[in-house]
């Protein structure tokens, strides 16, 4: 996003939300920033009646390079595939617009709060498991070419192993040297032992499924039922993952 004043930015967000929802910008009384990631700014846009059911979220990418455009469109495709099942409804996505030169999307606002999963009640975890299971049942045909290219449990496991090992590049200063050494030793052990093609359970015909990819506390909004947000790490893979 170009550098603009906060007031001008809020006006752009309000205008975009109004266009998507088919109403006047005056319909929205308040625009407030929500906690966002490193790659985008997030805003809650509330209506005059302050009804959470009609509030929306606008998310605007900070950058517009090809990688960011691909990532933003990828997440939009995932949200379309999720279809509002344990996920916010996607109202609109565009790579650029009258309001923003960078990718933006407008989504359903999910009321509720985050919870510390370490302190969650058994019934809450059961509800979360049910939500994840419903995600695993979503059709994935439209996501082919956007997510994983794995076509079996074995190929997915190998793909995930490679992805994990590739992240060892982040095991560097200021991480203590002793911990860096332990991490790399653990990675070597994992690589030696992960002879997936020879493990019988990975030869079963279990179909791969849509996975959220990061169902951590901050990515779950507890409303009437738990809803998963921030789908940027979604993938097609083993439901057991």
Give the structure's gist in a few sentences.
The chain has 241 residues and is of the alpha+beta class. The chain contains 5 helices and 9 strands; from the N terminus they run αβββαββαααββββ. The protein has helices at residues 6-21, 66-82, 122-136, 153-166, 177-193; strands at residues 28-34, 40-47, 56-61, 90-94, 104-108, 209-211, 220-222, 226-228, 235-237.
Number of domains: 2
Strand content: 15-25%
> How much is the radius of gyration in Å?
20 Å
In whole angstroms, the N-to-C terminal distance is: 35 Å
Output the CATH homologous superfamily of the largest domain: Aminoglycoside phosphotransferase (APH), C-terminal lobe
Structural class: alpha+beta
- How many helices? 5
Net shape: globular
Q: Are there runs of 5+ residues with pLDDT below 50, and where?
A: none
**Can you identify the CATH class of the largest domain?**
Alpha Beta
- Rounded average pLDDT: 90
Total E-strand runs: 9
**What name does CATH use for the topology of the largest domain?**
Aminoglycoside 3'-phosphotransferase, Chain: A, domain 2
Name the CATH architecture of the largest domain.
Answer: Alpha-Beta Complex
Report the biggest beta sheet as strand number plus sense, adding barrel if it closes: 5 strands, antiparallel
Strand sequence of the main sheet, in spatial order? Answer: 1-2-3-5-4
Question: How would you portray this structure in words?
Answer:
The chain is an alpha+beta fold and 241 residues long. It folds into 2 domains: 6-108, Phosphorylase Kinase, domain 1; 118-237, Alpha-Beta Complex (Aminoglycoside 3'-phosphotransferase, Chain: A, domain 2). The protein has 5 helices and 9 strands. It has helices spanning 6-21, 66-82, 122-136, 153-166, 177-193, and strands at 28-34, 40-47, 56-61, 90-94, 104-108, 209-211, 220-222, 226-228, 235-237. Strands 1-2-3-5-4 form a 5-stranded antiparallel sheet, sandwiched between helices. The protein has a two-stranded antiparallel sheet with strand order 6-9. The protein has a two-stranded antiparallel sheet with strand order 7-8.
